[in-house]
User: Which sequence fits this backbone?
């Protein structure tokens, strides 16, 4: 099983994703390549980090996850490959890998410096194709992560808002708006009991209750549900919650129990 | 040959399609997965049904077709797998499969109730990933459809406008606008003879003649052609017919012969 | 290794790409199919030609490249397959293949006339699915290009603006705007030495210097870099150069050295 995933801000309009796959398949012809998404807003490291962290654990053991949201390409930022108990992660050392790595048991962090595993010549503007793709393909074929470059103790951690437990609830915030307009919070599903009558507030304004699924409320009404990404999300049954309730990334929300 | 197609309203902006594929490849590592489209408007069962029905017959025998346009996810609607003489179809029992199934000889309809073939735990909001993907992967690997759950006699039929034969022509309507702006009708190509001077009307207004291909008329002019989806479509050579002629889904059109 | 790439204006909203892949996999079940892009503007032969030319050389030897930007489908234009020293190219003979072919050593040009290798019946509006896809699949499986139809000496050349060497620099023009807003010129990287203090002008107005990578200048500032597609491109660090500097395809730009 040779499986590589790609999470990038390359878009699908130009040839950037295609050439990245061409380079991979030139090295690892039997690799299956799965697109997580290529529509991360250009340079938005946090959005890329969240997509990768939400998706990576649904792939089989041994998968090589590549994330390239890389506004610092060609500059001083390092490139890394990280082996965990379950996966490999490859990308710039700018925080884009860190929320995914926080879910994993780290085994080795390597700085990508061995140019034998790069495409030659390496451009200054497209390391996705010239460094991350060939490195991922070599890992996929069984090359040891130790051959890629020197060990590194740490990697850059993305600052990520943490929820706060309160006497009567949890304070958190909106961290992602998905394409349906659902507002995903940083409050984990685990420990939430929708049967316990939980209420969701935006500041002091009550938004909705926590229920089990979207259709627990009438069409057009707001509801919060334990989301499929592992976090509580605020939705509108049959509608767009972000637009309807005016929610955006960074909005402070809280859950209160009765 | 292990082939799975996906027709959904998940979009490609988030990680929903990627995780669905990760689940499939964890169960059926050698499956080839083809995207029909993920850009069905959110919850638009008719658009998803049309895309699946237009595409499914171009795939080799044994293909597993998965369609997830599922506004009722987590609620009372059933989930089904249908074996036909040529294919398997997997999705919610809400009509999204029915126009495709109308082209096929049905052999077995099963309600998806055997949780051994689901991803655990099953979320309440993402059955595409947690139920339909793993079931499709198991079918792809050769699991009998009979193991998935109890037999069901029927499935929900999507109401679909039927064309009417008239003494001097056929009355139909626009059922889909494609991305080029071509207006696809519910009037089948079969039986139309473009050489026989057929005229197309919108209400009482003459739009164009039926010809063989787009360039039968000058650039900027309207023309109707037997479309590649099997239905008559109204186009503008080098232009966008829907915008240019003000056509939209549901518009009554008729063909008259001389 | 059986690898097919697709460069089209089909979009991903409808089922056109999916059915094309279904036809390929029905003939060549083990083919890997890579999308270069399907978002070429409808009928824009030049944009399709540029994408294919920028991408094709990153694929392994033996790859079958299919390009379908085909406003003349069903009309008088010919369909061709071209074998080069490294690849096969399949598409309409309307110029869309020619910039890619200009990089290659041509071995054989064949007109697609042997209907044994077509899908039957052939529609008049979708040769991507009915002619180019099955022909590519057969080539991928090892069918000789000679079986596809009669030899043809030439193919249609797309007129493409050539840069002009001047006493103090090079005159060229913008030929593509990528999704990040980078303006790609027709001036090749080869021979440019970013260390030699090159200045880029739009008409008589100085835009920026040529440097090695985007972050050579401060965020928000313009810079020209040797681009990953092989041509000089004008960018804004962290921004959209086309919008910020008002650049569009066809704009005359020049490089001057000190």
Assistant:
């Amino acid at each position: 099983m040779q499986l590589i995933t790609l999470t990038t801000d390359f878009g699908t309009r130009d040839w950037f994703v295609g050439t990245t796959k061409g380079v991979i398949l030139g090295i690892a012809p039997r690799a299956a390549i799965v697109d997580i998404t290529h529509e991360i807003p250009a340079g938005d490291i946090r959005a890329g980090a969240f997509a990768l962290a939400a998706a990576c654990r649904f792939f089989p053991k041994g998968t090589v996850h590549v994330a390239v949201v890389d506004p610092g390409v060609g500059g001083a930022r390092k490139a890394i490959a990280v082996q965990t108990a379950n996966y490999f992660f490859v990308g710039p050392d700018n925080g884009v890998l860190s929320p995914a790595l926080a879910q994993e048991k780290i085994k080795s962090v390597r700085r990508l410096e061995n140019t034998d595993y790069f495409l030659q010549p390496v451009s200054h503007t497209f390391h996705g194709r010239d460094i991350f793709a060939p490195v991922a393909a070599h890992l996929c074929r069984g090359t040891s992560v130790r051959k890629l470059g020197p060990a590194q103790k740490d990697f850059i951690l993305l600052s990520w808002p943490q929820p706060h437990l309160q006497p009567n609830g949890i304070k958190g915030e909106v961290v992602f708006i998905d394409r349906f307009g659902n507002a995903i919070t940083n409050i984990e599903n685990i420990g939430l009991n929708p049967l316990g009558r939980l209420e969701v507030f935006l500041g002091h304004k009550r938004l909705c209750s926590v229920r089990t699924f979207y259709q627990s409320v009438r069409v057009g009404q707001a509801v919060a549900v334990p989301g499929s990404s592992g976090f509580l999300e605020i939705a509108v049954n049959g509608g767009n919650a972000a637009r309807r309730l005016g929610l955006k990334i960074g909005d402070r929300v809280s859950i209160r129990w009765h």
